[in-house]
Design brief:
The chain is α+β, with helices and mostly antiparallel strands and 359 residues long. It has three helices and 23 strands. Strands 3-11-14-13-12-15 form a six-stranded antiparallel β-barrel. Helix 2 packs antiparallel against helix 3. The longest helix has 33 residues.
């Protein structure tokens, strides 16, 4: 009996309700978070891109004559030339013979014109005198006019030959540096055949490609640091910003003018960096910005420490800070690093980020 009594007591004690478990420490208390303040900050940004070295303005030199052989080439690639300097000479042997023949023809035309004028003078006072018929008088006057016209034609032909003779020397149309020489002695000249290519003034610039989103950040007159393939760094200036974006590559173009130097060779590549001066903008530490499917956002600390997620537009970044092109105004408190653990409407225990010593 005693055993049954003990067993009954144990059964009753096993069926009695257990005391409530104690809640975990901190349950129900607002989460501790750190916040920063949206403020004005000078952000110094920078752009980096690459491009090809090209002549700022290139002159193609060809002969204006056709069919004459090249007798001599007077300059070579990389030479610096003056405007009007002789670059090549054509063989004028046949042309000199043609000029001599034309001068003889001109002399004959001059004699014929003088004779015709004298004949016309003789009959000048015989009109209606009956000595000569009106038809004979008219013929002599016509012969004088024809002889004068033939004289003028011979003079024009000689002048044309003399112009050709002046063109037997191929001259530089501009001052600059010879980029390419393709002509050799013995070649036959033609207006369609380029003999030389000249970089006008020796000026070389970078033809750079810029991402579409960065084109508006580049301005004419901006200073750029250009690194050549040799590692040399030189300072250039933005001379031109393209007016259109390539629809396929989504790249814009800019031209960076460089100082005249012997080591600048068109066709090579160069790296370009532009440092932009800082201007006051609304900015927050980059750690305060969250990115999701809907874009960038900030978690704003509101009244009674209730948070709200607000979409923002981010601009340039520099020194660990991000520009707010749209979003909450300066002075707004936003969560830093902890925003991924709270939702809109949550109440938090907000502590200034500066108290952590890491920001």
């Amino acid at each position: 009996m005693r055993l049954l009594f003990v067993l009954g007591i144990m059964a009753l004690s096993g069926c009695s309700p257990a005391p409530d478990e104690a809640p975990p420490p901190g349950a129900g208390e607002p989460r501790a978070v750190h916040y920063v303040t949206v403020g004005h900050r000078n952000l110094e940004g920078g752009l980096a891109f690459s491009g090809r070295l090209v002549a700022r303005e290139e002159a193609a030199v060809a002969s204006q004559l056709s069919g004459y052989q090249v007798a001599r080439v007077l300059v070579d690639q990389s030479a610096s030339v003056r405007a009007g300097q002789s670059l090549a000479m054509l063989d004028d042997t046949l042309l000199r013979a043609d000029i001599a023949q034309q001068r003889a023809a001109l002399a004959q035309a001059r004699v014929a014109a003088e004779k015709a004028d004298q004949e016309a003078l003789r009959v000048a006072s015989l009109d209606k005198s009956g000595v000569l018929s009106e038809e004979s008088i008219a013929q002599r006057r016509l012969a004088a006019r024809t002889a004068r016209a033939q004289l003028a034609q011979a003079q024009a032909q000689l002048a044309a030959q003399e112009v050709r003779q002046s063109l037997m020397i191929v001259r530089a149309p501009v001052a600059g540096r010879i980029l390419e020489r393709t002509v050799r002695p013995g070649d036959v000249a033609s207006p369609s055949t380029v003999m030389f290519r000249i970089a006008r003034g020796g000026e070389v610039e970078v033809d750079a490609e810029i991402p579409e989103q960065s084109v508006d950040l580049v301005h004419i007159g901006d200073t750029a640091s250009v690194t050549l393939p040799s590692g040399a760094k030189i300072t250039g200036r933005i001379r031109l910003v393209g007016a259109e974006i390539d629809p396929e590559t989504k790249l814009g173009r800019a031209r960076i003018l460089l100082p005249v130097r012997k080591d600048l060779r068109p066709g090579g590549f160069a790296q370009v960096a532009i440092v932009q001066k800082g201007v006051p903008v609304n900015a927050v530490p980059e750690g305060a910005v969250s990115y999701g499917a809907d874009g960038a956002s900030l978690t704003v600390l509101g009244p009674r420490n209730i948070v709200k997620v607000v979409p923002v537009t981010i601009g340039q970044r520099s020194g660990g800070y991000a520009e707010l092109r749209s979003g909450p105004p300066a002075g707004t408190h936003v969560l830093l690093d902890s925003q991924g653990f709270v939702l809109s409407g949550d109440r938090v225990n907000a502590v200034p980020a500066a108290t952590r010593g890491g920001h």
